[in-house]
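Posting for a labmate who doesn't have an account.
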Amino acid sequence: MGPKRRKREHVPKKTTQAISLKRFGITYISLMGFFFVLIAFQPIRDIVDLNRFYTKGVVTITAGIMKLLGIACTCHGAVITLPGTSMDVRFGCNGLEAVMIYAVAVIAFPASWKKRLIGIVGGFVLIQIVNVIRIVALAYSGIHFRKLFEYIHIYVAQGMMIAVALGIYLLWIGYAKADTPQS
């Protein structure tokens, strides 16, 4: 008779994938909370208002591009004044929310810091290019298709920014996982 085999008891183990997913979720939620506090908490905003600074930059760049395209406009703070209407660019419309969602996901993903930095900078640039195009298109629709403006703004333009951030993130994951040993 051969050697006696011990019966193994099946004890479920936490997989590295489950642990990584849990770590990703905790990191993502914690960082999003931290960044929202930085942007929204009044005592911090009294010291430095990142959202206002960011919005003013986006509005200035967007208004400059509109002028190059022949769209008459002026800007003051977060407001772009157009013929017959004006647009108040706020959080969610300035692209900062999409950048935060994207950047926090990049930081939470297990990758080298070099790849994370490349992802954040590249994603920021791409998201802002799309955002400026989106605001210009909204301005055009506000001038020429006033009745459709709210529909385009709420149902098309806002969702588009989140979809763009997600799409760029998925592309970045492919880049981040390349040449990374899989467990």
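Reply:
Got it, the structure tokens are right above this. The first strand starts at residue 74 and ends at 76.
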